[in-house]
């Protein structure tokens, strides 16, 4: 059935669902104290480490780190997408899933959801038609023919042409200023500082990006002239999150009923050139590194992933990042391989040069299993010919191997590491299980687990978090720049707050992380914060997530922690929130509340100071508007104090 599932229904469904019943219908549970235990269904084990808490309505595996609510369990266990999992739980509860179809007078769940798909579809039609009939199309046609593409492949992938000029699409789509605003929201138009609106894509070959249902959600454009950048992608929009999507996945599934392996390559033309040669199982990330979300999505569809990268330094760096993203999802029975192409070649050029049969033979003969690539890569950095090198190799490898959920693969790779270094299982086990932070353990999560096994962010990425309304994660870029300083090794990358809690001594946490934890355990505090907009411009990832939680709770004050986390299920932020919720908060209630409001006040003060600096800087170079002058006067007199009442009695 078409239409959006209302969030209020999902919240109510989770309230009506008992996770013990849901898990117990699929796994044999045993009562152990106030919780239930079992052997984990997500990795092979002999001693039960899988726990279900009826109080928290959470499950957690101490062995592989899997955890979440009833909805997440059904998605992961039954290999279902989110809407299908909601249908499954609703069927169990005897409920019919309502849908919001955008009828007149009906309020949508999110105001940006409904109008963008038809606009993007109409734009795709315009670009396809322009490739066939526009007077300036010949350069695009010559480019595609020069890459060896047929009309059939161009049709299958919906290729098009954005003509030169500033307003071709805008004129074609027509409409008033509201229509143009929607086109901006869809990433099709740009509005500059002077208010001028113009086409984002001009004089480019167009590659529509489709979601799993075949709907156009974004575009990539390859320039035909000398403009920069060479490839231009749609920005993040309410329907397009490039860190989660894979180009060509819809086409690969459409053309292969029984997909067994998916090949991950680096670019649009790699995917299309391989398809032209009959290899229709390739997908590409959209200008980002391979993420853990990409891996989880692919492993839900196929048991095998083949990474095909250029053999240069950039390609090998991308391959190692992909390996790191794979480790937490590599259960026994799943396989990842790595193929490095000759220097100066990519899948597009090589498959056209040597043909599909030779390319398949290359895959068969040269693709390295993940385990082989893992040890070869680390041995390039830590020479096992010396005792010091062996010690360093073990230090690097053991924590990575501990991320593997597949017990058999983990044991075999640890055995291999022991053969290389001469260390026994006991010594390697100590390395793997060394504490990574000093946060006190709760009765539900062991102290040696970080908040969430995950992966560093990727250059240029940003997410539109639910409730965040498209706020840029500029902090991610700063961390990434810091992580890739010249000379850094992959395992020396520092993970950002959006992924793991900082490893500071004595359990010390950043104030914003503590505020997040407090808000999860005491959601009612959100009603005492009058306006999160006082610090919404902060680019710190914790703060952005804190603002999103505050806005969500203020809009839906009846939400509990479980419902909050469900809104971010399957994302980096969701794993952080889940980890925070699983840790008990040991500070006294009054101190905790005081710390929370101190943090809110400090954030607002910091934002006010930045606003003041910005206005003073502008005043030195140009005339301020009347509104800006009033704002500056208020800031200078410090009369603009946020109304944060703080804890009762303060």
The percentage of residues in β strands lies in 5-15%
Which regions contain 5 or more consecutive residues with pLDDT less than 50? 102-114, 435-508, 584-588, 639-650
Tell me roughly what share of residues is in helical segments. 40-55%
Q: What's the pLDDT, averaged over the residues?
A: 77
Major pleated sheet = 5 strands, antiparallel
Number of domains: 4
Principal-axis shape equals globular
Note the gap between the termini: 52 Å
The CATH class of the largest domain turns out to be: Alpha Beta
The secondary structure category is alpha+beta
CATH topology of the largest domain: DNA primase DNAg catalytic core, N-terminal domain
Kindly provide the radius of gyration, computed on alpha-carbon positions and rounded to a whole number of angstroms.
26 Å
* CATH architecture type of the largest domain: Alpha-Beta Complex
């Amino acid at each position: 059935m078409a239409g959006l599932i209302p969030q209020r229904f999902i919240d109510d469904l989770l309230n009506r669902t008992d996770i013990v019943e849901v898990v117990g219908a699929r796994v044999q549970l045993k009562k152990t104290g106030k919780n239930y235990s079992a052997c984990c269904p997500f990795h092979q084990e002999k001693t039960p480490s899988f726990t279900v808490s009826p109080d928290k309505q959470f499950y957690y595996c101490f062995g592989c780190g899997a955890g979440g609510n009833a909805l997440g369990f059904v998605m992961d266990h039954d290999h279902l997408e989110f809407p299908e999992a909601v249908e499954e739980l609703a069927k169990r509860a005897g409920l019919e899933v309502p849908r919001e179809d955008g009828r007149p007078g009906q309020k949508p769940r999110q105001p940006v959801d409904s109008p963008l798909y038809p606009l993007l579809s109409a734009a795709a039609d315009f670009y396809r038609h322009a490739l066939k009939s526009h007077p300036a199309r010949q350069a695009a046609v010559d480019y595609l023919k020069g890459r060896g593409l047929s009309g059939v492949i161009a049709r299958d992938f919906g290729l098009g042409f954005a003509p030169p000029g500033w307003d071709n699409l805008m004129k074609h789509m027509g409409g008033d200023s509201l229509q143009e605003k929607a086109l901006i929201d869809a990433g099709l138009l740009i509005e500059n500082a002077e208010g001028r609106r113009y086409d984002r894509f001009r004089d480019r070959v167009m590659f529509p990006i489709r979601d799993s249902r075949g709907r156009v959600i974004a575009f990539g454009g390859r320039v035909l002239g000398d403009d920069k950048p060479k490839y231009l992608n749609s920005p993040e929009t309410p329907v397009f999150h490039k860190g989660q999507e894979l180009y060509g996945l819809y086409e690969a599934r459409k053309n292969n009923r029984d997909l067994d392996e998916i090949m991950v390559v680096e670019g649009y033309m790699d995917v299309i050139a391989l398809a032209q040669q009959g290899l229709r199982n390739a997908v590409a990330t959209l200008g980002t590194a391979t993420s853990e979300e990409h891996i989880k999505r692919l492993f839900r569809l196929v048991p095998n992933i083949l990474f095909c990268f250029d053999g240069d330094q950039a390609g090998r760096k991308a391959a190692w990042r992909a390996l790191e993203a794979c480790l937490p999802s590599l259960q026994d029975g799943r396989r990842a391989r790595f193929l490095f192409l000759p220097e100066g070649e990519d899948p597009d050029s090589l498959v056209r040069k040597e043909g599909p049969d030779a390319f398949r033979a290359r895959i068969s003969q040269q693709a390295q299993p993940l385990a082989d690539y893992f040890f070869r890569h680390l041995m390039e950095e830590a020479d096992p010919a010396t005792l010091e090198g062996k010690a360093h190799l073990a230090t690097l490898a053991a924590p990575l191997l501990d991320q593997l959920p597949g017990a058999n693969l983990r044991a075999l790779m640890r055995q291999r590491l022991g053969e290389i270094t001469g260390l026994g299982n006991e010594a390697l086990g100590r390395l793997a299980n060394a504490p990574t932070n000093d946060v006190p353990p709760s009765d539900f999560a062991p102290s040696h687990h970080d908040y969430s096994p995950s992966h560093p962010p990727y250059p240029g990425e940003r997410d539109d978090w639910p409730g965040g309304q498209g706020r840029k994660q500029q902090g991610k870029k700063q961390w990434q720049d810091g992580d890739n300083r010249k000379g850094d090794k992959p395992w020396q990358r520092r993970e950002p707050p959006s992924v793991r809690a900082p490893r500071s001594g004595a359990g010390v946490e950043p104030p914003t992380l503590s505020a997040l934890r407090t808000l999860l355990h005491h959601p009612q505090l959100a009603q005492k914060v009058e306006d999160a907009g006082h610090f919404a411009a902060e680019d710190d990832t914790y703060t952005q997530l804190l603002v999103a939680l505050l806005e969500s709770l203020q809009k839906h004050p009846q939400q509990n922690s479980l419902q909050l986390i469900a809104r971010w299920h399957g994302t980096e932020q969701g794993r952080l929130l889940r980890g925070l919720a699983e840790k008990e908060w040991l500070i006294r209630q009054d101190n905790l509340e005081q710390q929370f409001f101190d943090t809110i006040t400090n954030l607002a003060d910091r934002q006010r100071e930045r606003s003041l600096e910005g206005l003073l800087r502008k005043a030195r170079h140009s005339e301020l508007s009347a509104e800006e002058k009033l704002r500056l006067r208020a800031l200078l007199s410090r009369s603009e104090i946020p109304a944060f009442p703080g804890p009762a009695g303060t």
